[in-house]
Design brief:
Blueprint: E1 7-8, E2 16-17, E3 20-21, E4 26-27, E5 42-46, E6 49-56, E7 60-61, E8 65-68, H1 79-83, E9 86-88, E10 91-95, E11 101-104, H2 106-119, H3 127-140, E12 152-161, E13 173-183, E14 194-198, H4 217-220, H5 223-231, E15 236-241, E16 246-250, E17 253-260, E18 266-270, H6 281-293, E19 297-300, H7 305-313, E20 317-324, E21 328-337, E22 340-343, H8 353-366, E23 390-392
Helix pairs in contact: 2-3
Subunit structure: Homodimer.
Function: Catalyzes the first reaction in the catabolism of the essential branched chain amino acids leucine, isoleucine, and valine.
Protein name: Branched-chain-amino-acid aminotransferase
Length: 396
Amino acid sequence: CCTVAALNVTISSALLFAVNQAADLVIQLSSSPKTKQDVSGFGTVFTDHMLTIEWTLTEGWQAPLIMPFVNLSLHPACSALHYGIQLFEGLKVYRGDDKRLRLFRPMLNMSRMAKSARRACLPAFDQTELLECIRRLVELDQDFVPHSDSCSLYIRPTFISTECSLGIKKPTRALLYVIMCQVGSYFNNEAEAVSLWADPKYTRAWKGGTGDCKMGGNYGGTLFAQYEAVEYGCQQVLWLYGEDHQITEAGTMNIFLHWINEDGEEELATPPLDGIILPGITRQSILELTRKWGEFKVTERYLNMGRLCSALEQHRVKEMFGSGTACMICPVGHIVYHGESLHIPHQDKNAKLSSRIEKELTDIQVGGCSNTQKHMHACMHTHIPQMFPLAQQQLG
């Protein structure tokens, strides 16, 4: 049985990517490489190259192409623009102290992307072959991976319908492309706890919807509430659902509550994957890691504002935090609910569970495991000369 770190394995290029192979990948080098810049902000400094793969119903998947980073050319009636038939993923490349580059559990991203594609009626793709194409893109632009513990290279696989018709129908044309950018801290004050605004009048997702898929509409539709949260002095929205004000997500993060539950047990709890919650890779990793420790109860259970308020009044809350690829771990400082500011307790940083989780996950991502952890974090390097292990999952 493997742990959250799982195995670093070689990605073979021998498997089929639909009717094509990753071995068919065509590479066109940029004639004007960018000057490398210091990382500032999130998602504004892009690499020299991008990956594109076109699909049509009649011809299937075309040969993958790595090409210079350019603007896309789309038909004005493209159904991705009119009807939101599109999705994306997000994962990071980390540079370790050993100078090797690592992806953290990328096959989980590929699996989630395939699930989103089915929901969007976009064509199926070979997940392993796509990852191999992404690996080649990272290899080509590896100089953009920052030499910093606090920065990384963000990978954004994107899948859109290029159907050029105003009829609402299943696409007969599509484009899968991958771009990459340097990223620093997601929040400007990442060292501090985030503030959340909880108001049930806005809903991020609903049963039977697409809240468990990574589609652009799930994010664009949150902006109005996000700016209202700012008017109330908060940085993010705590998304509630239903008449009992179930806690679902915080901004674009999964949410965790570390508390003493109603039965007097120490517990780390997060809402279950019931179709509303996005199945975050960091979320899954936190659950697997803390269950491996076996030190307290770890559950996926429904949480609501009534239970949280009671626990705060009875001093049973240890801390709350959000998790995600962009932010990793983000502690929650206070919540504005029904006009009242609910202050979330803070322990010393070295004593907080969230700090311990973040350190262990970071060690896995950059290959900084201690000798006592190495039996948990097996490493099998790829054929790329001493630089590119892929930290993947192999559960069971």
